[in-house]
Amino acid sequence: MNSSFWHQRWENNEIGFHEGKPNQLLVKYFHELSVAKGRWIFVPLCGKTLDISWLLSRGYRVAGAELSQLAIEQLFMELGMQPEIETVGNVEHWSANNLDIFVGDIFAMSGKMLGPIDAVYDRAALVAFPEDLRNRYAAHLMEMTGKAPQLLICYDYDQSLMEGPPFSVSNDEVHRHYAATYDLTPLASTEVSGGLKGKGPARENVWLLKRGER
Questions:
Q1: Is the pLDDT of residue 17 over 60?
Q2: When you count CB atoms within 10 A of the terminal residue's CB, does the N or C end of the chain come out lower?
Q3: Is residue 37 classed exposed, middle or buried when 0-12, 13-18 and 19+ CB atoms within 10 A define those classes?
Q4: Is 74 exposed, middle or buried (0-12, 13-18, 19+ CB in 10 A)?
């Protein structure tokens, strides 16, 4: 899977992953991060998610990363914001009103570009990467955000039933990526109604990742 896959999905409006309202698991469990208003929340592979609007409306500042410029053009248009755009390294930085989006390859980003992050909300990133990239992504995310706490949402299902994305990320895999750095708390595990894309049973799992005393 490469960048052309995602560009094509946005160009063809094949964005079934885009929810038409703020994610209910975010709404229900965001408070578990215990982040004060005015702090920075990072949303990797954000698309034009309405979760950004929800976070902004509650007084948070939001940073995001997204490969598709088309998605971010739509995001700012739907928010009614006119962004300032500058090139930073190999990505573009779009900014306006407590919102900073970096358009390009997330692996081309650095902590210096991103600035201090207080928490990460990952609903669409870990599950978007195939297995051979998830290790790299998890390590890069922790380095880039200074190991900020995370609210992580992922799917667990029989990968043989469909190719993904979203890919299946088991509880064991979450531990492999993050248990050496964070204390992991499972917050919820719910069955996906009707199965994932109608192809088989799946569970949607919510994790709180916070650094404890080590």
A1: no
A2: C
A3: exposed
A4: middle
Q: What angle do CA 159, 122, 118 make, to 5 degrees?
A: 155
CA distances 162 to 158, 165, 166, 167, 202, Å, are 8, 9, 9, 9, 11
Mean pLDDT of 190-205: 89
**CATH number reported for the structural domain that contains residue 57 in this entry:** 3.40.50.150
Task: Identify any residues that bridge with 207 across adjacent strands, giving them in sequence order.
Answer: 152, 186
d(CA 125, CA 141): 10
8 A C-beta contact, residue 52 and residue 46: yes
189: containing domain: 3-210
Q: Among 90, 196, 184, 93, which residue's Cα sits nearest to residue 138? A: 184
Within 10 angstroms of residue 119's Cβ, the number of other Cβ atoms is 20
CB distance 207 to 172 below 8 Å:
no
Number of structural domains in the chain: 1
Place of tokens 């900014």: 95
Kindly tell me if the per-residue pLDDT of 15 is higher than 80: no
122-137 average pLDDT score: 96
